[in-house]
Specification:
With 129 residues, this protein is an all-alpha fold. Helix content is 88%, strand content 0%. It contains five helices and no strands.
Amino acid sequence: MILRLLLPRIIGWRNRFTKGDKKQRFGLVRGAFVSAIIAWVIWNITSEFIGPMAEYGQTELSLLKLMESLPAQGLFWSFWVLLLSSITVGMQVFYLSNEIPLLLCAPITPSKVFLAKLVDATAINATLF
């Protein structure tokens, strides 16, 4: 039942890529390409910057302490950014969506509607990060 509620969005993505005009297909390919470029830049920055810092940190005690705390700090701030993002996406999906009254009038239990919207919001938030 949940897949049936999410099927229009999946079909829309597929149709946009296979049957859409060149502008829509170019937008999807451009988004994937930009994401790959950003991942490549982050990989190069971390390997070129953090690698030599770790080698130098073996002799410098204060730099070693800083390098040991970097993963914890990164995870800490990533958690809070993802939490804030999920709250804003959740508010948009659950409270600002015009389709909620229509879906609640359908012969579907409200828990299935809620679960489908939760999966939809999670997918939207996952694509952002």
